[in-house]
Design goal:
homodimer; 300 residues; alpha/beta; four-stranded mixed β-sheet; 10 helices; globular
Chain lengths: 300, 300
Amino acid sequence: MNTLVVGSLAFDAVKTPFGQVERMLGGSATYFSLAASYFTPVRVVGVVGDDFGEAELAVFHERGIDTAGVERAAGKTFFWAGEYSENLNDRTTLDTQLNVFADFQPKIPAAYRDSEFLFLGNIDPELQRHVQQQMSAPVLVAGDTMNFWIQGKPQALRQTLEGIHTLVINDGEARLLSGEYNLLAAARKIHAMGPRTLIVKRGEYGALLFQDGRVFCAPAFLLETLCDPTGAGDSFAGGFMGALAECGSLEPAALRRAIIYGSVMGSFTVEQFGVERLRCLSRAEIDARFRAFRDLTHFE
Amino acid sequence: MNTLVVGSLAFDAVKTPFGQVERMLGGSATYFSLAASYFTPVRVVGVVGDDFGEAELAVFHERGIDTAGVERAAGKTFFWAGEYSENLNDRTTLDTQLNVFADFQPKIPAAYRDSEFLFLGNIDPELQRHVQQQMSAPVLVAGDTMNFWIQGKPQALRQTLEGIHTLVINDGEARLLSGEYNLLAAARKIHAMGPRTLIVKRGEYGALLFQDGRVFCAPAFLLETLCDPTGAGDSFAGGFMGALAECGSLEPAALRRAIIYGSVMGSFTVEQFGVERLRCLSRAEIDARFRAFRDLTHFE
């Protein structure tokens, strides 16, 4: 099934204890689409500036990603700079330049409107709803949000949430959105806002899936060398949606497998800076790590 | 198989957002032995003061725990007072009165020396080694330690670790002991100190088992009502050792099951203050939660 992602395309500058990159391809839609591309056809809607060239687009095209929905605007591409703490658990934003992303008004090409799977990246909830209204009849609408929108546009976000089937956020966002510290209580409140399925990302502790009163707990993969956590959450979302789209089922067992595939893709992303690891994987490597997750968690 | 635990018997005063108890039965050996008692015969070595009466001993005897190794000394029983933060993740020690525990010199009764499973609770590493030397030939020696000993008696601790098969500590302790933040690297260094098996407790995020280059990740159970985290780690250790002793195997599959049983016992403990929940469980309740852990983690 076709998967459409709407989100940011960016250049990032990242410093971690393992090195520093002055300028590299980034953005939520970038990580999402590369991760999803190993499972399903992917279409991207986003905006880039004059500085986003053929080399950047080639990263998408090498993975067969459809970039006809990437709009080019006069100006510079969204730029983010950040630095991670020694244990990679905290990060400080050093610079954010929205540039062409500031006036982003996502337009869904006619050929994209029949996409069965839609992922609404972390953008203004009003734009998220506007995107959804342009779609014909998606089978699954999933989305992300962040504290900035939870606190800054609560009414718009609540309206958008009514149309989202699967919300993919981190634990801090789930607590802020629900006003509940306990995640079972938070999930119940968020279900009542619309999303029947809630996925809570917990960074180095993995992810939780809440649906129909059942909980599934996926660990994070233990790695000896973590290099750069940037994009891990978006890669998780891409692997999750891609694996779901590939199998074409929304049954609980399919969701669980998809969460693990999401965790697999996130674990690869952090192994190198930016998209370096994510762009050149093989399906055999992905499936081998999926089996490693089973070995990590199963007991008789 | 018989399981012997050496550790503290105490009175605790605990304040959490859900209430306050001025004085309740506590101590690592108490939680450990109650948890283990659902699986295996348990023997306790510890010291109590004049204030530790029949009512306290009855809690052990109701669970069939052998307290012939509990020494009575003149003075008061070890007392600890603490207060937990709103989300229960942090605690502040308000008072520690070692009392009779300050001069504790564990003496293993002759009838206990053939115990197949030995758990060395979190006491001075020199005393831990002294206990071990009194045993005839235990099948499994497991133990706990803490930052106080890691920093205060590093040489004695290293000697003790050489005789410990299975070390059960939390993530902060594993990092301090090894000097490594990454837990895979930490496990490798700790294996080299002696313990072939390392179990790392991560509080609300569950536990990790490191053995022979393989890792097993057990989640914590998600509870809507957590009341008091005191003793959860010791209950985990008791459930783990008890389940292992019951099945009599040290194979990887048995260790994984035992880790889950440990997690089950820890999850019950936090539901009420002190040992209130732990002392009156049924094996059916325990096995039902074991199955719930499988539902929480398994995927096809």
